[in-house]
Amino acid sequence: MSQAPRKRDALRGGMRRAIVSLGTVLPPGQPRWPIALQAAIVLVVPVLIGISVGRMDLGLIAATGAFTVPYFAALPRLERLRLRPLAGLGLVLTSVFGAVLAPYPIASAVGLAIVAVGIGYTVHGYRLGPPGPLFPILVYGLSGHAVAGGMSPVVLVSTVAAGCTWAVVASLAPLIRREHWQITPRPLRVLLAQPVWDRGAKELMARTAIVAVGATVISVAFLDAERAYWAVAAGVVVVGVVPGRGLAVTRGLHRTVGTIAGIGVYYGIVNLSMAPVLLALTLGVLQFITELAITRHYAIAVTAVTPMALVIVTAGSGTFGSAAVMGERMLDTVVGAGLAVATALLHPAAPADPTGRHGPVHHLPGPSR
């Protein structure tokens, strides 16, 4: 058999596996309900506070602090607590950049690409694992939209910072259990040791850079510069945190299908005209489902996270319920995900990584007891 038919057969096989994966739920691993519950609580509380003071928009923006919860989830609690402020600081800094550059469309687009590449370098170099660069990019876009809609940059950034601070405070609650204190946490110099750039990390970084720049340029040239962050976000999550062509094709399909389904959920939320408190609780349920499903079925997780992100972004920018937003996000997702899958096909397949890449510096010894 010639090389060309073999490549076609491999491509067909990969597509077949990707399609089959839509009907496959992976077996459970480590229990994720504690992370899911914490993320839901961290998200819902600021929204309820915002509702109580008549500023639900600020409550939704503060709810972005929940985006810090999934990071470092594989680590012991004490180590997670040491690193979570850094995740929060990253969100605050991206919010600053998004807010400051919002009045300048071209500068904002360039800033988006720089932020995506910079976060990608951190994620892939330090092996931070899921959710990868996704949430800082969403916060960057949210910040730009909110400021463009008339919100004060100072109020915006302060609100994001308050939400991230609340996430850190909420992280203390589980430490009442003695078992968390029986593990000696490693210091930051160990947890964040110098990155190791193996072939897989270099490939992921290169693909992230291509997606960040490419999706931004396509959005500015042919779509809408203000929406570029959604295309970039869709692309970087398809690139993911583990190298491999097959994974990229599968994640691209799951991302597209999940986004379409999630936009349908968002449409339902809009048309139900929920009371504010019920909407807050619904967002908490969506966050809970996202964290439960993320390791077992990516499309289900995307179906839950898409309406949640759309509610937060559109409510913060005053475009909640816009039919145009739904169509635009679908198109942006196809652009970003398609570009990410293309980069996987352009690069040589990375070698197997049996030790796993999730969690900071996975090559280091675990915490001592």
Largest beta-sheet details: none
N- to C-terminal distance? 56 Å
How large is the radius of gyration? 20 Å
Query: Helix and strand string, N-terminal first?
Result: HHHHHHHHHHHHHH
Percent of sequence in beta strands: under 5%
What structural category do the secondary elements indicate? mainly alpha
Overall outline: globular
Number of helices: 14
Mean pLDDT: 80
* Helix percent band: 55-70%
Beta-strand segment tally: 0
Low-pLDDT regions: 357-369
Could you name the key traits of this structure?
369 residues; globular; disordered C terminus
Structure description:
The protein is mainly α and 369 residues long. The protein contains 14 helices and no strands. It has helices at residues 3-21, 33-52, 56-62, 77-101, 105-125, 134-148, 153-170, 188-191, 199-222, 228-239, 245-272, 276-293, 298-317, 323-346. Helix 4 (77-101) runs parallel beside helix 6, helix 5 (105-125) packs antiparallel against helix 9 and helix 10 (228-239) packs across helix 14.
Helix-strand layout with pairing:
Blueprint: H1 3-21, H2 33-52, H3 56-62, H4 77-101, H5 105-125, H6 134-148, H7 153-170, H8 188-191, H9 199-222, H10 228-239, H11 245-272, H12 276-293, H13 298-317, H14 323-346
Helix pairs in contact: 1-11, 2-3, 2-7, 2-12, 3-7, 3-13, 4-5, 4-6, 4-7, 5-6, 5-9, 5-10, 6-10, 6-13, 9-10, 9-14, 10-11, 10-14, 11-13, 11-14, 12-13
The gist of it:
The chain is mainly α and 369 residues long.
